[in-house]
Give the backbone structure.
Amino acid sequence: MSAANKKTTGAGAGQGASGNGGAGAPDGFEFSSENTAEISRILERYPADHCESAVMPILDLAQRQMGGWLSQAAMDRVAGILGMAPIRVYEVAAFYTMFNLEPVGRHHLQVCTTTPCWLR
């Protein structure tokens, strides 16, 4: 497991929709009516045969609805909407640091430790 993925919990195979393990993880997840309408607008921007490309904006929408993090149930719901295998959605969420797979505090501080940041 890479260092970027060590922050993840519950995104492994074999866990049910409620197996996130994060405190306060919901048993199920449904988008609000406003966000459902926004998903429709997002999907209109993509060709029907490439709707999987909308995974990042829809994950962002789910994360904002959940208060700053993504439960496994939310990622499962995104996978269902896009017709993707849930593992593909987990891979995207685990790869990008903008997605939090466990609850975060009010102030979420991240420090860049890459070479370009150190050179400044």
